[in-house]
Amino acid sequence: MELLIIKAVTAVIIVITLSIIAEKVSAKLSGILSGLPLGTMIVLIFFSIEQGIDYAVEASLYNIHGLLALLSFIIGYYISTFYKRKFDIFVSIVVSFMFYLVAAFILAYVPIHIVFTPIAVITIITLATLYFARQPDNAKIINTKITFKDLFFRTILTVVLFLFVTSIPKIAPVNIAGIFSAFPSMMFPLLIIVHFHHSSNQARTILKNTPSGLSSIVIFCVSIHFTYPTLGVLLGTIISFITCVVYIIIQLKLLDYFGINVNAKQKHLKNN
Prior knowledge:
Layout: H1 2-25, H2 27-34, H3 38-51, H4 53-80, H5 88-107, H6 116-133, H7 148-167, H8 174-180, H9 187-197, H10 200-208, H11 214-231, H12 233-257, H13 264-271
Helix pairs in contact: 1-2, 1-7, 3-4, 4-5, 4-6, 4-8, 4-10, 4-11, 6-11, 7-9, 9-10, 11-12
C-alpha cells in the first residue's frame, strides 16, 4: 500500500510541475522537458524496486521497441484528427489505441539486439521527425490558463495510467511490460484536454512536435541497460539522464545546422 501511495504521489508531482512550467515559466522549457524520458525513468525505477534490477534492465530494451508503438499511437491520433464529425475525440482515442496495441503486441515478439535495435528505432524516429517537421503547425500556441478542473482530470487520468503501467509485471511477461513502459501516460491526458477544449488542430500540432524527442529515450534506455547492473539504480539513473540531456542538445544543434528546426513554424505563429 505504501508503494502504491508513493507511485500516485510521484505521478501527481510530475503532472503539476510540468503544468506549472508550461503555464508560468516558458513554452520552450516545457518543450525540452517533454522530450526527456520522465515517464520511462520513473517506471523503470519502480520496476527495479518491485521486480529487481535484472528485470528493469531487460525491460529497458523492450522499452525501445515500445517507442515504435508510441510512434504508432502518435500517427494514429494524428491521422484521426482529420475526422471532423461527431464523437471526433472518441474516434481519435479508439484509433490511436488500436494503432498502439497492434504495434505493441507485434513488437513484443520481435527479437531485441543491443546494437541494431537502437539504431533501427532511432532511424525510424528520425524519419518520422523529418516528415512531421515539414508539416505545417495547424494552430497557434495555446496561451490560456490551465484550469483546476483540467489539472484535476489530467492528474487522475495520469495516476490511473501510471499505476496500470507499473503493475503490468504482475500480470504479463517482461517483454509486454517493457513495451508498455513507453506508453504516453504523461502526454495522453494533456492531449485529450487540448483536443476537447480547443480543437483537433491544436492536438495535431502537439502530436507533430512529439517525435523529435523520442530518440533521446532510446539513448536513456541503452544507458540504463549498461549502468544499472554496475552502478545501481540511483547513480545509473542520474548518469543515463545526463547522457539523455547531452544527446538532446547535440540533436537540436545538428537539426539547426542542417536547417531543420522542428519548432520554427510554431515560433513564427507565436510571433504573429
